[in-house]
Design brief:
heterodimer; A: 163 residues; 10 helices; B: 258 residues; alpha+beta; Thrombin, subunit H; six-stranded antiparallel beta barrel; 2 helices; 12 strands; 31% strand
């Protein structure tokens, strides 16, 4: 039982890695304002799919990774993603059975919460230039891209038998 | 954790996680590098020929300038000896390639492919062929993060090349615009003036071009003049940069050369 539970960790890490590459991929100036929060989306997916394995600690670790990746204050994304993971884990049973549209709305709220959290931290250390409305744009794009991302991640989960 | 950011305690952790993030930056750079490679493979012979001619002409012009430079340098050293101030040694440089741009559009930073293992250190000055680009703010083992002079949190000491008027040059978060702070209305700065680094900030080497003044406006209600400048470095087009290493000991008395 114990061995079966810990299957597919490399696949999970690989999806986070891919999300990280998408996060730093160069984009045109206009498009980079609406760059979806890939790492948050992947984290939310894994939390919903495997709440017994991927949780707040994963969120924190992945957040630290994103902090170093984007040169942010160490702990900024860690706190935000830990919060996102906590909320997602608390609501994972409901999110699972939601119809697609409603699920996207929840993703918007979750990613938006994380983005505002990290905006708050950024604001506290005095490194922001844009008004907070702008940080919700990536959350909106994330919500729109949730279905395709969900399908891909579900395929990964089934293909590599992650459980 | 956040309080730790104020001190240096979390630097080792950041350095260690840098091993994990470096491959991400390298991988994200692959598509654009392949695009560059493909377009460089598909250049016509005529284009190459004309580029070669252009470069040869440029080399000739530069060599002619270098000839004069040697004489000027020697003269400069003699004059400095007369003034009893220390001679400036040539700085060692390290070439690096930009492999990542900061994804957050409100910050002006990029990532280069040289890090702590190549001897890069925090505060090192970064230039390109046109002039000063910025400074290293964060070191990973294989990558380093460079803060550009156009970032809103960056400022450095500059002086007008024409007459030595000093001012503080600060970024405003736009890639092609910087601003001089606290310039008196009567200061002798006009459009077209070249601003060079002074080295007074103990961080940037002295005498590298930084920006060119493009607008001077006087607002009767404001205590200071509005002076805008454009960086001479190719801030948003650079792909290779130079890291300058300080080999000379810090100059003790900068004021003596004025």
């Amino acid at each position: 039982m114990r061995e079966r539970e810990s299957r597919g960790t490399p696949a999970v890490i690989a999806t986070f890695f891919l999300a990280a590459v998408l996060t730093v991929l160069p984009l045109p100036e206009a498009a980079s304002l609406g760059r979806p929060e890939w790492i948050s989306m992947v984290l939310i997916y894994w939390v919903i799919a495997l709440p017994h394995r991927v949780g707040v600690l994963w969120g924190f670790a992945v957040g630290l990774f994103q902090d170093v990746l984007t040169g942010a204050v160490l702990g900024q994304h860690a706190v935000a993603l830990a919060l996102v993971a906590y909320v997602a884990i608390a609501a994972h049973k409901r999110i699972r059975v939601f119809p697609p549209l409603q699920q996207s709305v929840v993703i918007f709220l979750l990613v938006g919460t994380g983005a505002l959290m990290s905006y708050t931290v950024q604001n506290a250390v005095g490194r922001v230039l844009v008004p907070p409305v702008w940080v919700l744009l990536p959350a909106l794009v994330s919500a729109l891209l949730w279905r395709p991302a969900f399908s891909v991640l579900r395929w990964v989960r089934r293909r590599f038998l992650v459980r | 954790m956040l309080l730790d950011q104020r001190s240096e305690h979390v630097q080792p952790l950041r350095f260690a996680i840098g091993y994990l993030t470096a491959p991400v930056h390298y991988l994200a750079h692959v598509p654009s590098a392949m695009g560059e490679w493909a377009s460089s493979q598909a250049v016509s012979r005529a284009d190459l020929q004309s580029e070669k001619n252009h470069l040869e002409r440029q080399i000739m012009i530069l060599q002619q300038r270098v000839q004069r430079l040697a004489v000027l340098e020697a003269e400069n050293v003699r004059l400095r000896e007369l003034l009893n101030s220390s001679a400036e040694l040539d700085a060692r440089v390290l070439a690096a390639e930009i492999i990542g741009i900061e994804p957050d559009p409100s910050r002006q930073e990029f990532v280069i492919n040289k890090g702590g293992h190549a001897g890069v250190y925090r505060g090192q000055a970064v230039l390109d062929a046109g002039g000063l680009l910025g400074q290293v703010v964060d070191i990973g083992p294989l990558t380093a993060r460079v803060l550009l002079i156009t970032d809103a949190s960056h400022a450095l000491s500059v002086q007008v090349n024409r007459n030595g008027v000093r001012a503080i040059l600060a970024g405003i978060g736009q890639p092609d615009r910087v601003r001089l702070l606290f310039v008196p209305d009567t200061a002798d700065i006009i459009e077209g003036d070249l601003l060079v680094s002074t080295g007074l900030d103990q961080r940037f080497p002295r005498g590298y071009p930084v920006a060119e003044v493009i607008r001077v406006a006087h607002d009767p209600g404001a205590p200071f003049a509005i002076v805008e400048a454009r960086p001479t470095a190719n801030i948003d087009r650079a792909s290779h940069v130079l890291l300058v290493e300080r080999t000379a000991p810090r100059r003790e008395r900068e004021g003596g050369t004025q």
